[in-house]
Write a structure and sequence with these properties.
Helix content is 46%, strand content 19%. By secondary structure, it is an alpha+beta fold. The termini are far apart.
Amino acid sequence: MVSPHMVMYDQEFDQISTICERLYREASSKVVFLVDKNGQLIASAGETDNIDTTSLASLTAGNIAATGGLAKLIGEKEFSILFHEGERDNLHISIIAGRVILVVIFDNRSSLGLVRLRVKKTTVELTQIFESLMRKIEDPAAGSPFAEITDEDIDNLFSD
């Protein structure tokens, strides 16, 4: 089954942004990003001024796709958590609800253990939000702003 396109509503976006801000603070991280698997930035928190967020989002999605290929080669579905350790900064990357990517960039002010602990809690919260969003999209009567628009309305909009 092809999954429907994600539509973000203000209420869910505000919840997601709040969760990212909290994770940023509680994990003592530098930056938190939430990216969809197509490489589009959904939300961010932290020290984003000196980061090319578009490139980071795109490269993160590519990284997930590449490691997904590696996983399949060894008989795994996917690797849900990735960790990259650098000289100064580290990346903790995890897949949320099978459709979005949570990226936490941290340095020596934090630890991998703290980040993993905070990400685990955040994963549960974000999964609930994205599952709720998918239910809204799959059931137009469940609150979609597009539910009352018919094909006739669209035809009338574009006819003279």
